[in-house]
Design a protein that fits this description.
- The protein is of the alpha/beta class and about 300 residues long.
- β4, α3 and β5 form a beta-alpha-beta unit.
- α3 packs parallel to α4.
- The protein starts with a strand and ends with a helix.
- About 40% of the residues are buried.
- One of its GO terms (molecular function) is oxidoreductase activity.
- Pfam families: NmrA.
Length: about 300
């Protein structure tokens, strides 16, 4: 891959997309283009992108038509990090990117390793993986585990960021001894800038991670840096399974949430060990590829999180 690539990012103002843009710009090796909805072109965060010499191209993923091909002109790499509701439209983006001569398409993954039949959202992403391979465009699939930013909750229920956050966080399923992998949002972009410039990652699956811990270990870290004592809410695996089934019947965001929790706190899908297995996609370990990158650990994040008023 050439050192100076032109990279188009969908979802550039979201959490993951913004991190990716930051990583690309900080590396100084890429021309960065952000695909922005027409209705958002004058928003402060888009204006800020312009001041950082990010080219803005308008594209509405809720109304994709033949004109979308114009967005891909002169682009080497496409990175999709838009909201999850736009997952299906990626097929149209892939077709247009292929026709425009895009070399690599990185689809909207950015989550936890899994296998089919466990999480509906993963299954939808796997369909996109199949389509990419069928079309024959170059790709890199990238997962990042859980965000380290959701590993901890405020030290007191009265300070929770949304209703139910505190109790959801202190719920331990089973023994709380199943490990899960985490990545700081800010580190995602650092990894991505290296990944897309690395020929070893072409047509491969890469797993980025900063730390691994069980729910009980996270509790211990929280108590260490908050100075408080958290009383866990115990839940059996059978109780969680019933909640998952109920959420599937209802659908929507809660279905995704409970399937995620069952996947990483009960099944234990979200580990680097699993990600490397053939049934999970035979991932390359980003920390082995780039040992000089020092991602933030859970303890480092907790020290800052509980050191602030929260």
């Amino acid at each position: 891959m050439a050192n100076e690539q032109t990279v188009l990012v969908f979802g550039a103002t979201g959490n993951t997309g913004a991190s990716i843009v930051n990583g690309l710009l900080d590396s100084g090796r890429f021309k960065v283009i952000a695909a922005i909805r027409p209705a958002s072109k004058d928003k402060p965060e888009v204006i800020q992108l312009r001041t950082r010499r990010v080219e803005i191209r308008l594209a509405d993923l809720n109304a994709v038509d033949d004109t979308i091909s114009e967005v891909f002109q002169g682009v080497d790499v496409v990175i999709s990090a838009a909201e999850w509701k736009t997952l299906p439209v990626q097929k149209q983006l892939i077709d247009a990117a292929k026709q425009a001569g895009v070399k690599i398409f990185i689809p909207n993954d950015w989550a936890t390793p899994c296998v089919r039949g466990v999480r509906k959202l993963y299954d939808e992403k796997a369909v996109i993986h199949d389509y990419i391979k069928e079309v024959g465009i170059g790709y890199t699939f990238v997962d990042v585990g859980m965000w380290i930013q959701v590993a901890f909750a405020p030290a007191e229920k009265s300070k929770e960021k949304y209703p139910g956050q505190f109790d959801l966080w202190r719920t331990i399923i089973g023994k709380g001894d199943v490990k899960s992998a985490f990545t700081d949002i800010a580190d995602i972009g650092v990894f991505v800038a290296r990944i897309i410039a690395d020929p070893r990652t072409l047509n491969e699956y890469v797993f980025c991670w900063g730390d691994e811990a069980t729910k009980q270990e996270i509790f211990n870290i929280a108590e260490k840096f908050s100075g408080g004592k958290f009383e866990p809410i115990r839940m059996t695996i059978e109780e969680k399974e019933k909640i998952v089934e109920k959420s599937r019947a209802e659908g929507g965001v809660m279905e995704a949430l409970h399937e995620y929790e069952y996947s990483y706190w009960v099944r234990g899908d979200n580990t680097i060990e699993n990600a490397k297995k053939p049934e999970y996609g035979s991932a390359l370990d980003a920390r082995e590829l780039y040992p000089d990158i020092k991602p933030r650990s859970l303890e480092e994040y907790a020290r800052e999180f509980y050191g602030k008023a929260n």
